[in-house]
């Protein structure tokens, strides 16, 4: 009888732990280390170099978001960016996406200084688009949460430029 109950208990434990493992696996569906909260459905590249390679290969513009964890402006923009369906959809389908918490060695990505948040576009010919800017003359590539419609226009502009120029 002792053996019997041990076996039953073992089987019960196995059943419980495999159900737990399944629940944990379901929960961790998308290992979102690269999104950092900017959009979990978006496929993010890990490095600027990888972004350039993917942009050239896929003929899609690369969107580079510079941000820092402890920057309240970045956090506010990130929230607006992640909650906007049009931004998320375009980012998923039409862009190679990269968000960076450090500066790149490419000086073209900081034409007017290194500040955050900063969003820049690089076209598939690997040209940094210094002509796609935000609304502020003192920080050309910054956006605020209320500027999301303007960012959407700039995303569309980046896509149009590819069609007309390349």
UniProtKB/TrEMBL annotation:
Signal peptide, first to last residue: 1-23
Name the keywords, alphabetized. Answer: Signal
Presence of the UniProt keyword Membrane in the record = no
Gene Ontology cellular-component annotations: endoplasmic reticulum
> Is Membrane one of the keywords?
no
One annotated GO molecular function: dystroglycan binding
Assigned protein family? Belongs to the AGR family.
Name-wise, this protein is Anterior gradient protein 3
């Amino acid at each position: 009888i002792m053996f019997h109950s041990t076996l039953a208990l073992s089987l019960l434990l196995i059943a419980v732990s495999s159900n737990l493992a399944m629940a944990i696996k379901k929960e961790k569906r998308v290992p979102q280390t690269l999104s950092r909260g900017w959009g979990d459905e978006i496929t993010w590249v890990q490095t600027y170099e990888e972004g350039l390679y993917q942009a050239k290969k896929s003929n899609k513009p690369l969107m580079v978001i510079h941000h820092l964890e402890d920057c309240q402006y970045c956090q506010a923009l990130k929230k607006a960016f992640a909650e906007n369906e049009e931004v998320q959809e375009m980012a998923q389908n039409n862009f190679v996406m990269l968000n960076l918490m450090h500066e790149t060695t490419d000086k073209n990505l900081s034409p007017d200084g290194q500040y955050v948040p900063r969003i820049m576009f690089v076209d598939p010919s690997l040209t940094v688009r210094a002509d796609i800017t935000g609304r502020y003359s003192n920080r050309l590539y910054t956006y605020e949460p209320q500027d999301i419609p303007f960012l959407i226009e700039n995303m569309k502009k980046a896509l149009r430029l590819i069609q007309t120029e390349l």
